[in-house]
Amino acid sequence: xxxxxxxxxxxxxxxxxxxxxxxxxxxxxxxxxxxxxxxxxxxxxxxxxxxxxxxxxxxxxxxxxxxxxxxxxxxxxxxxxxxxxxxxxxxxxxxxxxxxxxxxxxxxxxxxxxxxxxxxxxxxxxxxxxxxxxxxxxxxxxxxxxxxxxxxxxxxxxxxxxxxxxxxxxxxxxxxxxxxxxxxxxxxxxxxxxxxxx
Length: 198
Description:
- By secondary structure, the protein is α+β, with helices and mostly antiparallel strands.
- The chain has helices at about 1-15, 100-105, 105-120, 180-185; strands spanning about 45-50, 55, 60-70, 75-85, 90-95, 125-135, 140-145, 150-160, 165-170, 190.
């Protein structure tokens, strides 16, 4: 429960905006070592109609909703969390920002600001990061990080879909997360088709 409470707090913090100026280069990550692996055959499809997405998770996640105040007003944060033996966690969250803010704002800084707050709240350092796209049209940011203080490895993806921000993350305190495990989780994330898209 302690592990779960930590991630609830983390995603609330990361929902707020910031505009850091960060210019770093990141080496390639060797994630071949892992003390415990996840059986991808046991991952189950989880669908959120409200969040308009589907993803594979180890089991049905716990849903939690928070409203947080920020410089741009109140933001509702909905998150879905699965934790395992207080050593691993899988998390997906979504929050809607005011459409006007997205239209006139610097969306690259929004994604970087979320990353900055995640790293700051964990006391973690980035190992690697790169820009990504969802469905070849929505901008995103992916990064791998580690914190010595909590001896935790983190893989994180953030997407901006219209005015909605999706945050996907995996955490492990028992060793690096393998490429296969991360692909089984992050690679399964899909937006639900809307009627106008059919």
